């Protein structure tokens, strides 16, 4: 089932998400809904807070990046079929050089900005069978993981922009939170308070 994606301005996007256990109700169904929702919106990642659930869960399918001719053959190969579920993730280490990459977010449609992140991460997480993994990623796969991981920490990519960039985006972000935007996927906008 395709779920509405929560728009910028909703408080659930600002909560530090809670860990879940393997008896979380209807987890398989939730994961299937998240995949469908992400693909319907042409995303490469989706975190549970983006569908209104403050839990430590996100899904990634970075396969579309494998066709990017600007990436090395090695990176294209690494991204091809890179499809994973991350439950109760914890980034253990971020290292390497800072590099800028143009990011967007399904909760913040029509805004893309360059964000600096470290190029290598080590992350511990559980998969959909609650098997624990500790893995190291670099390049674009690390970046996609960092972006989705930020969601379960209550952080948005716009938080990483300079104060000048934030001021320049303020009106556009307000329009998104008020539902004054056209998107080709279902969204849920924060309740607009009367008198505003």
Keywords:
single chain, 196 residues, alpha+beta, 5-stranded antiparallel β-sheet, two-stranded parallel sheet, 31% strand
Describe this structure in words.
By secondary structure, the chain is an alpha+beta fold. Helices cover 26% and strands 31% of the residues. The chain contains 4 helices and 7 strands, in the order E-H-E-E-H-E-E-E-H-H-E. The protein has helices spanning 27-40, 73-79, 139-152, 163-177, and strands at 5-6, 45-47, 57-61, 83-105, 108-126, 132-138, 187-188. The strands form 2 sheets. A 5-stranded antiparallel beta sheet has the order 2-3-4-5-6, sandwiched between helices.
Quick description:
With 196 residues, the protein is an alpha+beta fold. It has helices at 27-40, 73-79, 139-152, 163-177, and strands at 5-6, 45-47, 57-61, 83-105, 108-126, 132-138, 187-188. It starts with a strand and ends in an 8-residue tail after the last strand.
The SS-based structural class is: alpha+beta
| Mean model confidence by pLDDT | 94
How many helices? The count is: 4
Largest sheet: 5 strands, antiparallel
Blueprint (SSEs and pairs):
Blueprint: E1 5-6, H1 27-40, E2 45-47, E3 57-61, H2 73-79, E4 83-105, E5 108-126, E6 132-138, H3 139-152, H4 163-177, E7 187-188
Parallel strand pairs: 1-7
Antiparallel strand pairs: 2-3, 3-4, 4-5, 5-6
């Amino acid at each position: 089932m395709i779920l509405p994606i929560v728009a910028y301005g909703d408080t659930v996007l600002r909560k530090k998400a809670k860990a879940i256990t393997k008896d979380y109700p209807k987890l398989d169904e939730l994961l299937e809904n998240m995949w469908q929702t992400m693909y319907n919106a042409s995303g490469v990642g989706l975190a549970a807070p983006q569908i209104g659930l403050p839990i430590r869960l996100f899904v990634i399918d970075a396969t579309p990046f494998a066709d990017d001719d600007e990436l090395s053959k090695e990176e294209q190969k690494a991204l091809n079929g890179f499809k994973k579920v991350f439950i109760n993730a914890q980034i253990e280490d971020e290292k390497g050089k800072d590099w800028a990459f143009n990011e967007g977010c399904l909760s913040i449609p029509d805004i893309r900005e360059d964000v600096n992140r470290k190029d290598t991460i080590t992350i511990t997480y559980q998969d959909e069978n609650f098997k624990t993994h500790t893995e190291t990623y670099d390049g674009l796969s690390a970046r996609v993981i960092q972006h989705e991981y930020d969601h379960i920490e209550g952080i948005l990519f716009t938080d990483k922009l300079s104060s000048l960039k934030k001021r320049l985006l303020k009106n556009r972000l307000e329009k998104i939170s008020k539902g004054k935007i056209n998107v080709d996927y279902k969204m849920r906008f924060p309740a607009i308070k009367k008198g505003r």
